[in-house]
Amino acid sequence: MQRLFGLSLLLLGLALLWVYPVASNGLLLLALILVVAQWRYRYTWLLALPVLLASVDLGAWSGWLLLDEFDGLLAVLAGTAFAAGQYAGSMAPSRRGMFWLWMWAVVLALGLWKGLVPVPPLDANAWYGYLTHWNAVRVVRGGFWALVFAPLLLSQLTHDRQTVELRLALGLTLAMIGFGGYVLWQRDFLVDLLTAKDRWGLFANWLNLSGKYRITGTFSQMHFGGEAVDAFLILVWPFAFWLLLHVRRWSMAVLASLALALAAYAIMVTITRTTYLAAGFAFLVYLVLLLGRPERSSRWPMLVGSGFLLLCGFLAWFGFRYGGSVLLAAYMMVLAGCLAGGLFGARWPKLSLPVGMTLLLTVGLALALRAMLNSRWADTSLGMALAIAVPSILIIGLGGLAVGRSFSARLGPREALTSLAIVSIMLPIAVMALSGYQMQSRANTVSADWQTRMAHWQKTVSLVPDDLGSQFFGRGLGGFPRANLIEGASQEAGWFFSPQGRGQVLRIVGNSSLALGQRLISPIPGRYTFVAQVRNPSRASASLEVRLQPRRILEMEGWLPNSKELKFVVKPGQSYTKLEGVIDIEPDSIPRWFDPRSLVFAVTNQGYPGSALDLADIQFNDAQGNNVLLNGDFAAGGLFWLAYSDFFHLDWHMQSLYVATFFESGFFGLTVLLTLIAVAVWRAWQQNRQDRTFAAPFIAAVAGFLVLGITGTLSDVPRVMTLFLLLCVAGLWRQHR
Questions:
Q1: Contacts made by residues 447-453, CB under 8 angstroms, sequence distance 24+
Q2: Could you write out the three-class secondary structure of 321-373?
Q3: Where are the alpha helices (DSSP H) in 247-351?
Q4: Rounded to the nearest 5°, which phi and psi values hold at 404?
């Protein structure tokens, strides 16, 4: 029976990839590779699932929302494992202590039923929007795939725990490397590298923390904002840390170090306050677990070391405004060198330590003074520079030496080197992140933003009816965008498809930042003609804006370079009007191969609130009269089109994991989720006390995830929830003798 089910699931996955509208051949080739690899090696999925989650997302090109290519690839992986008999015997460990996991399955089933019933037609609005009952299916996918893979994970943990832990940590580390590399590219690292005219140009964009751009990574669901990228980073980096601590091969240590560096950079450029808090809290939790195992009974050195690092962070943050990155480099050189001297000084020749420390402090002081006296950002006198540099260098250097000595007997060589690497990576990135103009401006609005969130949560809770059934079981999965638009006086607009003749009509309700766009494939310079049939069936005046702009996913800037616009005022009426306009595409407006942006054709309604625009048969014709748009008549619904909302995100997200769980699943679902997490953390804590160190990254990841969940929905991102719930399954597992 398992093999038959596996074959059916495998064929369904291949069929989904076969009909996928973008890169179908490449996806099928990838699927075949996964089939062969999973069939031959049962642990393949532990490597493949995290990498696929982080690297394969074509939603910005396909427009698919209800399902996507990730579902097809996971169906292929799970189907192959079933067909190969790798699930054999998996039900026995699945029954051991998994009560709360299966209770969560009940919560999801109830939420799906309440969210989906009454079942509406499976039309274009279901496939390409969030405003029908079918959105419950999109949301439930995360829990569904976690439950599909949970028995396999439990069985493999029982069979060979160490191999599973190593493969899972390696898979998450590789995923972080791929994702971090994409973030670097998205932040214009290649643009700076290939176009810089001087040394400052090498850092013009990828280290610029003053702009409003905030990364989305590979997650196309960030087209409406949210915390998908933040949650992925928080869940993954602790496992790269664990891998760095426990692998024996230096090649693996290099991979883990690279992943940690990229994770720290990616967290920095999220420019999100709660993400910084969550990452810092998770890091502290990991340190407590690392240094608080039974064989390390004294807590005093840990407290002193943590306090010293906080002091170093403050000194570096304060000095950074006077001497910039050069002064920061001087501080980090002194800190790392003196920590290393304290940790390993007992192994050095007798006089080498004082001589080396004196030389290091002298060089660090000279470099710090030069940084402040030659800074482009601050005019600092020699007296002020000495007053800042001398005490800070002495505190960092001598304190680092003392702290290093206090830990020299508590940390082995690998742990000591790892700690040095983490401090050298995390501290300067944290300083730069907190010193950026955009982050400072966001820090000034904490109180106002919190009040906004509180009002939003109160409105969300008020949308849940007062009857006992709704309070206890919620309104169902995926219902918030629809309920907010209809009942919650949403600021944001909506978009809908309705049949008309052989094609369909796209209706956009204004006024908001909402736009529907299509990424142009290999555009060439020249004159293009926009043509469309448009009407305004509402009573308010509407304004159609046609935009051609280089963009990534989410662009918080109000103005983008090289953007082109056409504007048409459309008065109320029931008849269609043909609108035409011309846009010239210059060579400079087409992103180059190393640029992360794509040229996007977008339409939006900037008319009065409540106004509506019906658009039919949109064309964007080149000089030869060829329409470069795909599905411009919307006969295939929203295929190849993706909605973008750059500014108004609250109307699409509940912005709290806990409020969202209550809204969708009521007090019952919230209780089950928190209990599931608590039991998993408790069992992992017990394993950590038994010196099974893989529990530490899980607890740290969950701790950060829960902090991030204070202001982030998280549960409406299927990929993230698949990963989170699978980690919870690993936490729930316990060895039975």
A1: 452/650, 453/655, 453/656, 453/711
A2: HHHHHHHHHHHHHHHHHHHHHHHHHHHCCCCHHHHHHHHHHHHHHHHHHHHHH
A3: 250-268, 273-291, 300-344
A4: -60, -40
The vertex-58 CA angle with 56 and 194, nearest 5°, equals 80
Listed as ranges, residues in the chain with pLDDT below 50 are 296-297, 737
Helix (H) or strand (E) holding 605: strand 598-605
Q: Which amino acid is at 327?
A: L
Give the integer Cα–Cα distance in Å for 728 and 720.
12
- Return the percent helix, strand and coil in the chain, to nearest 5: 60, 10, 30
- CA 420 from centroid of its chain's CA atoms: 27
Phi, psi of 42 (to 5 degrees): -65, -20
Among candidate residues 416, 385, 605, the one with its CA nearest the CA of residue 516: 605
DSSP codes, 160-229: -HHHHHHHHHHHHHHHHHHHHHHHHHHTTHHHHHHH-SSGGGGGTTTT--SSS----TT-GGGBTB-SHH
Helix (H), strand (E) at residue 389: helix 382-408
Helix (H, G, I), strand (E, B) or coil at 657: helix
One-letter amino acid at 190 equals L
At residue 297, the pLDDT reads 46
Rounded Cα distance between 360 and 366, Å, is 10
CB contact set of 304 (below 8 Å; sequence gap of 6+): 403, 406
Going by C-beta distance under 8 Å and a sequence separation of 6 or more, which residues neighbour residue 244? 253, 256, 257, 260, 418, 421
Task: Say if residues 638 and 692 touch (Cβ distance below 8 Å).
Answer: no
Give backbone dihedrals phi and psi of 547, rounded to 5 degrees, phi first.
-120, 140
- Beta-carbon contacts of 566 under 8 Å, excluding residues fewer than 6 positions away, are 530, 545, 546, 581, 583
pLDDT of residue 326: 80
Question: Within 13 Å of residue 166, how many CA atoms lie on the same side as its CB?
Answer: 10
- Nearest 5°: phi and psi at 618? -80, 135
Q: Are 73 and 17 in contact (CB under 8 A)?
A: yes
Distance CA 3, CA 9 (A): 10
Enter the tokens of residue 442. 């966001």
| Contact (CB, 8 A) for 78 and 149 | yes
Q: What's the CA gap between 427 and 432, in Å, rounded?
A: 9
Residue 238 is encoded by which pair of tokens?
């602790």
Query: Quick count: other Cβ atoms within 10 Å of Cβ 705?
Result: 24
pLDDT score of 460: 93
Tokens 């976690």 -> residue: 146
509 three-class SS: strand
Q: Using alpha carbons, list the distances in angstroms from residue 214 to 51, 96, 453.
A: 22, 43, 19
Reported in sequence order, the residue ranges of 445-597 that DSSP labels E, i.e. its strands, are 495-500, 503-509, 514-519, 526-535, 542-551, 564-570, 577-585
Residue 239's pLDDT is 95
What end-to-end distance do the CA atoms of the chain give, in Å? 29
- Judge whether 367 and 326 are in contact, CB under 8 Å: yes
d(CA 672, CA 19): 38
In sequence order, what are the residues at sequence separation of 6 or more whose Cβ sits closer than 8 angstroms to the Cβ of residue 121? none
